[in-house]
Amino acid sequence: KNVNFTVWDIGGQDKVRPLWYHYLDNSYHGFIFVIDGNDRERIPAAAEELHRMLSNFLMEGAVLLVFVNKKDLPNVMSTSEASEKLGLDAITRRKCIQATSATTGEGLYEGLDWLAAHIP
Known about the structure:
Number of strands: 3
Strand content: 15-25%
Strand order of the largest sheet: 1-2-3
Oligomer: single chain
Shape: globular
Structural class: alpha/beta
Largest sheet: 3 strands, parallel
Distance between the termini: 15 Å
Order of helices and strands: EHEHEH
């Protein structure tokens, strides 16, 4: 496949989050949000940040890909559990949630293929 992505890792701790908005402009077509599928305690904060980012007018047309990472661990959230906890049903834009393992690569290509197929 002949697809190129420009990717910014704008993750970070609480102190860095207000700086995320300086990276946004109206040229974004897709948005990848990665969560630790084994860390249920931080999901409410992740959900809040996800909805805050998506409410920014500069992200209006961007499709959403959510990676639920660490699928290789025994107690990881299912995609349906993560979807519910993140409030993805309330998001009306085109979206996909994909279980992944960053260490094995499992699920990464499927998610990126979906993203490539749904961005202009």
